[in-house]
Amino acid sequence: MAVIAVVTAGLIIAARVRPGRWTGIAAVTLGIVILANESFYYVWIGLRGQFDVSWALPVQLCDVASVATALALWFRRQILVELTYFWGIAGTANGLLTPDISDHWPSYPYIQYFVQHGGIPCAALFLVIGLRIAPSTWAVARVYALTFGLLLLDALVNLWTNGDYMYLRRPPGVNNLLDLMGPWPWYIVGGAVLALVLFLILDAPFRISALAHARSKSAPYPPPA
Questions:
Q1: Quick one: which of 4, 57, 55 has its CA closest to 170?
Q2: Per the count of CB atoms within 10 A, which of 10, 127, 204, 222 is most buried?
Q3: pTM
Q4: Residue 134 contacts by C-beta under 8 Å, 6 or more apart in sequence?
Q5: pLDDT digit string (tens) for 146-190?
Q6: Which residues contact residue 53 at a Cβ distance below 8 angstroms, ignoring those fewer than 6 apart?
Q7: Is 192 exposed, middle or buried (0-12, 13-18, 19+ CB in 10 A)?
Q8: What is the C-alpha to C-alpha distance for residues 201 and 193, in angstroms, rounded to an integer?
Q9: How many Å apart are CA 171 and CA 141, to the nearest integer?
């Protein structure tokens, strides 16, 4: 956690204070690390004969966010940056606070988990705060709609595989916020409401800033002395 915090803060501060060509190199490198970390995990479980469609398909939110994050770092498309920001901070970062993993340091699954769940929020803050790519006006609506679409996809995958993608059948096996929202299916409804609230909170600073900027531009100039 400390390493993730230091790396994230260092990238943000350096990008704000000393912007330049190095930020592009850093973005590409971070994207490679995130995508390679995601990809090699499936190679690892395949070589060990552990691949199982009930849990190992890359359709969990963090898996999809890994791909979106790498693409956002490489191409800086607005929707990709927004997905990285909202999914990374409201979703993936929660995995750092309540890690759903039984492995311990220095096992490979432990390292892979924290590289994934630390790399995505790091990239999100680097893009939005460090490189100043702010979410657009309708970012919350767009990302929430895409999140709902992923939820429907994972629900279908769960029916096919008897899996628990996006924890739609049961919550994680560790203490987390979903435990406070009642039994199935009410925790899904509560989680959807919580996601929207978190999205709005994450978006609020940018909407306030845009409103203040619009007011300053429309303010009349003071009369000449």
A1: 55
A2: 127
A3: 0.92
A4: 128, 206, 209
A5: 999 999 999 999 999 999 999 999 988 767 778 788 889 999 999
A6: 160, 161, 163
A7: middle
A8: 12
A9: 25
